[in-house]
Amino acid sequence: MNYLEIIGTLIGLLYLWLEYRASIYLWIAGIIMPAIYIFVYYRAGLYADFGINIYYLLAAVYGWLVWKYGNKAHEKAELPITHIPLKYLPALMSVFIITFIGIALILINFTDSNVPWLDSFTTALSIIGMWMLARKYVEQWWAWILVDVVCCGLYIYKDLYFTSGLYGLYSIIAIFGFLKWKQMMPKP
């Protein structure tokens, strides 16, 4: 499976570059990469990461449609980068907490996972981050920075060194992505 991890890593680099540029084509890589990582994570016993890649496949289709057609104010115009409305934060926090605890309990009770809390933490936060990315909220980068840092250590622990390197790079580039998206935001 090492070749799949390497291919997934390369597609992940392309995905990150396209996300940094706020290119709609990130969603194509966003379909291919999770299809590969479904197999990588299952074999590594990272069951929540395995499961979230199914979500990523579906979210990539959703993200493509929202970015392409989600700007109701201007027909045929792409969705602009914006700040997340504060009214969404309590709901997002609730979804995160419920998902985090729920996934952890499933992993503890029904799998042989030896990292249920970290696996469920990164999965729950990734669900939130992916939704924010699909809506083109600049704050999505903060979710990804935290996910990437935690995943970097988790994947070293699970001997997924290429993937850990990818997530280490993600962590660094996500900081620059946040700054780039701030510059690309429409001025009020």
Short summary of the structure?
The protein is built from 7 helices and no strands.
Which stretches are poorly predicted, pLDDT < 50 over at least 5 residues?
none
Number of domains: 2
Rg over CA atoms, rounded to whole Å, is 16 Å
Determine the N-to-C terminus distance. Answer: 49 Å
Strand content: under 5%
Helix content: over 70%
Give the topology string: H per helix, E per strand.
HHHHHHH
How confident is the prediction overall: mean pLDDT?
90
Please identify the structural class as seen in this structure: mainly alpha
Q: Counting H and I runs of at least 4 residues, what is the number of helices?
A: 7
The biggest beta sheet reads: none
The count of DSSP E runs of length 2 or more, i.e. the number of strands, is: 0
Note the overall shape.
globular
InterPro entries: NMN_transpt_PnuC (IPR006419)
Family: Belongs to the nicotinamide ribonucleoside (NR) uptake permease (TC 4.B.1) family.
Subcellular location: Cell membrane
GO cellular component, one term: plasma membrane
